[in-house]
Amino acid sequence: MTDTAVAPSGAASADVPGFGHFIAGECVESVSGETFESRNPADTRDVVGRFQQGTAADVAMAVRAAELAAPRWRSTPAPKRGEILYRFGALMAEHKERLARAMTREMGKVLAEARGDVQEAIDIAFLMAGEGRRMFGDTTPSELPDKWAMSVRQPIGVAGIITPWNFPMAIPCWKMMPALVAGNTVVFKPASDTPHCAVLLVELMVEAGFPPGTVNLVTGRGEDVGDAIVDSPDVSVLSFTGSSATGKGIAERAARRLKRLSLELGGKNAAVVLADADLELAADGIVWSAFATTGQRCTACSRVVVDRRVADELLARLESRTRRLRLGSGLDETVDVGPLINARAAERVEGYVDIGRSEGELVLGGHRAGEGDLSNGHFFRPTIFRDVAPLDRIAQEEIFGPLLSVIPVDGYEAAVTAVNQVRYGLSAAIFTRDVNAAFRAMRDFETGIVYVNAGTTGAETHLPFGGWKETGNGHREAGRAALDTYTEWKSIYVDFSGRVQRAQIDNQSAG
User: Looking at residues 440-467, what average pLDDT do you find?
Assistant: First the structure.
């Protein structure tokens, strides 16, 4: 299958491919007639493709297609739905290198990380394919004789899936795979920075055998396409990953229609390093967590909370390792750090560097990398500030870039206070040789994910993913818990006594 399999004819010039929406099994152009470009963030002269600038009318057509496809898909036995998911996962595995290279070109993360992104998508496809043969409910004894009691999961309806650019294949699959195996149909809006990755996924979904209308793709701006999905009265369940501010707005609007809503939002993740820690291990784990994906992960380590007694020693290791990181195009296997996603991201990080200069001491980095080949991309030097206070802005606000704050504290209790003294609660790590301290951290950290002697990144698809506080609204992605977002529970009672047995009265009374 070619990269232009969902491109309308005549949509782009010969050297720049054009791509359409995918609605009801067909490639269509936007009602607006407008398109937008996706460019390589490592070299903005490189145009990946032109994509449809979607409208509310396009969303309405996609939702209608999903509604029409829903009865057939819902009535398809769940194990058969799972078989299609399995074929999709197998196709991704077959095309893994092609998908990873396309991702690196469009999103910028280094190729090894892009391969990992695709592998996460493969893993969740296989995991949820298995759920097609399980989809467990409960069978329990009834309180009355000759009566059967059980519960089952059932699909909700049309699922609106709105995804970010930083994991442009893993996150859409984290959302779509549980939605689809449960029997929902999907309207999918990818981030406008990575629409080509979405097209490649949908192409393989078509090849895997998802029926027309089961999966519908609409590209475009959040204020046009995303808002229309959120506000559609016929979209019954929403899943969104993005900023906390945007998520709060979606929650308010979804609440007006009592829609099921799953939000995966911001993070301000900390790695605690106690005085007894293996500092070599801690430095390696922190540098990877802070600067992989150029810091553009919701689980990225942006704070190091370190016992003051070993702060200087740890900082020396962090500085030494960070100085050795090589910036460049992620397609170069020798590169460690790719570009930021766009110019706005670079400006945002620059703004926080300016704030940090008045809050801590700049150790290294702090500026864009514009020399040589880097001048054509959105590159920013990995940046470390020392002697940052726990309540400083760069220690409190999500930056989403390669900026690390080192926060010295006095002992375990002060470290826990610093970790929890933010409005987010996604991921935290502790480096220590003390098993008691490790277990206390598992209990005390107010985060959805805790790592012991490892960095803050690296979720596995068979465990729930999500966080506390402003990181989300309590739902989880990945693992069996992901099915909770996309299913309704139904309790069923079968009375085979042949007589009326009155419930909700005192059947236990004597006489």
Answer: 96
- With DSSP H G I counted as helix, E B as strand and the rest as coil, what are the percentages for the chain, rounded to 5? 40, 25, 40
Q: Are residues 223 and 295 in the same domain?
A: no
Which residues face 428 on adjacent strands? 270, 450
Q: Report the DSSP beta bridge partners of residue 449.
A: 427
Catalytic residues: 264, 298
In tens, the pLDDT along 389-420 reads 999 999 999 999 999 999 999 999 999 999 99
| Inside any domain, residue 316 | yes
Indicate if 334 and 211 belong to the same structural domain: no
Q: Are 16 and 24 in contact (CB under 8 A)?
A: no
**Amino acid letter for position 412:** Y
Longest dimension (CA), the chain: 93
Neighbours of 139 (CB within 10 A): 11
In a domain, 100, yes or no: yes
pTM over 0.90: yes
Name the strands in the sheet holding 35-40, side by side, starting at the edge strand that comes first in the sequence.
18-19, 43-52, 35-40
Amino acid, single-letter form, for residue 340:
L
Is the distance from CB of 364 to CB of 384 less than 8 angstroms? Answer: yes
The dihedral through the CA atoms of 104, 109, 110, 115 has a sign that is: negative
Whichever domain contains 435, its CATH number is 3.40.309.10
For the chain, how many structural domains are there in total? 2
Nearest of 279, 311, 286, 278 to residue 410 by alpha carbon:
311
Same domain as 181, residue 100: yes
pLDDT 10s digits, 59-109: 999 999 999 999 999 999 999 999 999 999 999 999 999 999 999 999 999
| Helix (H) or strand (E) run with residue 158 in it | strand 158-162
**Same domain? 106 vs 213:** yes
Nearest to 160 by CA among 186, 184, 136, 193: 186
Collapsed DSSP state (helix, strand, coil) of residue 478: coil
189 and 281 in a single domain? The answer is no
CA-to-CA distance for 414 and 351, rounded, in angstroms? 29
Query: What are the pLDDT digits (tens) for 159-186?
Result: 999 999 999 999 999 999 999 999 999 9
CATH number at residue 213: 3.40.605.10
